[in-house]
Design a protein that fits this description.
Layout (H helix, E strand, L loop, with lengths): L1 E4 L8 H10 L5 E7 L9 H7 L9 E5 L4 H13 L5 E5 L4 H5 L10 H14 L4 E5 L9 H8 L7 E3 L14 H10 L4 E4 L5 H10 L5 E4 L1 H5 L10 H19 L2 H15 L7 H9 L3 H14 L24
Parallel strand pairs: 1-2, 1-8, 2-3, 3-4, 4-5, 5-6, 6-7, 7-8
The structure holds flavin mononucleotide.
Flavin mononucleotide binds next to β2 and α9.
């Protein structure tokens, strides 16, 4: 089974992926946070830097594209192909209000006739394989059979399903019955994504869905970056943290911005440590570089690391998918 790092906008950018692959690894493929091409067909300096070039990265990466325009999608694909990427991923899952209201991301699940025209265009003209990342509906997983029927028509390289509906964002139980429907009816290679936090969760997916070819981990791999390589060791995490902080200071030319970026990682990483409430609160409050460094150092050196993290998938129940469909 393949293991992927999920795209996490604001967290798993180029520097994070480089450091993660250097210090931890165990990831077969890193999916990049979305690139959202605009009509003026021009990459900003930040997009240019973040896209990098496939050959310059010591790991396999797949760019993700968020758009509802076939022309903009194909333009962005060309920029990816020029930089050596051999697959692109289509984002059909982003739940954010502004994205959804424009009919992009999970907004593509709203009007399947419109989405069908988009998919017809891109699949007939794209020079490289397209994988897709989607959810199981907008407001109810009852919508999922129609969504899957549509997606089954195209030569999708691999279909990643995050079994939540758009209105759930990233909260509440994942809808494993809807995913079970996919495992039975999907014609493509299938990738599971959602709430994998420990090795038991990986085992659960392997056993319940033996046909699944890949799993994609997001927040679980930020909390425990060594999850796929035998566990997170304290010294490795210290070195990872130090180099990533240095890299962000260099990249943003601002220690305040570097601290803000590191704090986004800590929202998940704090979960690795026991008794982290007090220092966690101090870390959240601080904007000062020196005080950030001192609090982070205390957490990293003084707090016990959880011997085993609680599974994310235990006792999850489907709330909106009818078992009759299975
Ligand atoms: C802060 C944040 C940023 C995200 N950015 C993206 C993104 O750029 N593209 C995407 O397809 N999904 C994005 N996601 C969704 C994740 O890729 C993933 O589907 C979700 O976190 C569920 O998986 P997990 O439970 O393993 O974290 C984001 C999620 C979060 C929390």
């Amino acid at each position: 089974m393949n293991h992927y790092l999920a795209p996490l906008e604001g967290i798993t950018g180029l520097s994070f992926r480089r450091m993660h692959s250097k210090y931890f690894g165990g990831v077969d493929r890193y999916y990049m946070p979305f690139l959202s091409p605009t009509q003026n067909h021009c990459l900003s300096p930040k997009e240019e830097r973040e896209l990098s070039h496939a050959d310059r990265e010591p790991y396999e990466a797949v760019p993700q594209i968020l758009t509802k325009s076939p022309e903009d999608f194909l333009w962005a694909v060309d920029r990816c192909v020029e930089r050596g990427y051999r697959e692109v991923n289509l984002n059909m899952g982003c739940p954010s209000g502004t994205v959804f209201s424009k009919g992009k991301g999970s907004g593509m699940l709203r009007d399947l006739a419109v989405t069908e025209r988009f998919l017809d265009e891109i699949f007939s003209r794209c020079p490289v394989p397209i994988s897709v990342k989607t959810r199981v509906g907008v407001s109810s997983a009852e919508e999922f059979p129609q969504i899957l029927e549509l997606l089954n028509k195209y030569p999708i390289q691999e279909l990643t399903i995050h079994p939540r509906v758009r209105k759930a964002f990233y909260d509440g139980a994942v809808e494993l019955d809807a995913f079970a429907y996919a495992a039975e009816h999907c014609k493509h290679r299938l990738c599971y994504n959602g709430d994998i936090r420990c090795r038991e969760d990986l085992q659960y997916i392997r056993c319940r869905f033996p046909a699944v070819s890949s799993v994609m981990l997001g927040r679980g791999l930020i909390t425990d970056p060594g999850l796929l390589c035998g566990g997170t060791k304290r010294q490795t995490l210290l070195n990872f943290h130090e180099e990533l902080l240095e890299e962000y200071c260099r990249l943003f030319s601002s220690k305040v911005n570097a601290v803000a970026r590191m704090k986004d990682i800590w929202k998940e990483l704090l979960g690795l440590f026991e008794n982290a409430e007090k220092l966690g609160k101090e870390l959240k409050k601080t904007v000062d570089y020196e005080s950030y460094r001192s609090i982070a150092h205390r957490i990293l050196t003084e707090l016990p690391i959880h011997p085993s993290l609680a599974p994310g998938l235990k006792d999850t129940v489907s709330s909106t998918f009818s078992k009759n469909l299975l």
